[in-house]
Amino acid sequence: MALIELKRMAQGKSSTLSHLYINGVFANYLLEDAIRPIKIPGKTCIPEGSYKLLLNTWGGMNVECRKQYPGMHKGMIEISGIPNFKSVYLHIGNTINDTAGCPLLGSWYNLVNGEFEVYQSRLAYERIYPVLAMIIPAESAHLTVTNQHL
Predict the structure, then answer these.
(1) With contact defined as beta carbons under 8 Å apart, do 12 and 35 qualify?
(2) The pTM is what?
């Protein structure tokens, strides 16, 4: 079974910088909303825990991703079973304005005016999507989310 981990490493004013690991190997940076004790819709990262990963073929983001990646897209990578959250996907974006509570993939990051941003998000998505899209249907894939060094 593949070990897929999201480790939160640092916080900005309203943003959280995370690392994505697959079988102990660093894969990407992730940008999330702030860690909050009480959920604010679209402005709170998912809580620590273990969540099932699915390839969601019915959600609204699929239409755009199928257009952008017709040969690659097999469904949105959904983080499923999160209390008080639904339709949470790993996807493309650069700032917390793009998250809506979802982790954004990035090749590198910067801290700008107290907020983390990720860059080359499309490149990161194109690199990691095929790996996860292969793992998810082949086994019962889970994402373990932990707060590190915060």
Answers:
(1) no
(2) 0.94
**Residue with tokens 């999330």, as numbered in its chain:** 32
Q: Where are the domains of the chain?
A: 4-147
Residue 27 exposure: Cα atoms within 13 Å on the Cβ side: 23
Question: How far apart are alpha carbons 89 and 69 in whole angstroms?
Answer: 16
Segment 14-51, tens digit of pLDDT: 999 999 999 999 999 999 999 998 888 889 999 999 99
- Alpha carbons 8 and 75: distance in angstroms, whole number: 25
pLDDT, one tens digit per residue, over 47-92 is 999 999 999 998 778 888 999 999 999 999 999 999 888 899 999 9
38: left (phi over 0), alpha (psi -120 to 50) or beta: beta
At residue 135, the 3 state secondary structure works out as helix
Q: Rounded CA gap, 136 and 116, in Å? A: 29
DSSP 31-79: EEEB--SS--TTSBPPPSEEEEEEEESSSTHHHHHHHH-TTT-SSEEEE
Tell me which residue of 13, 9, 28 sits closest to 129, measured CA to CA. 28
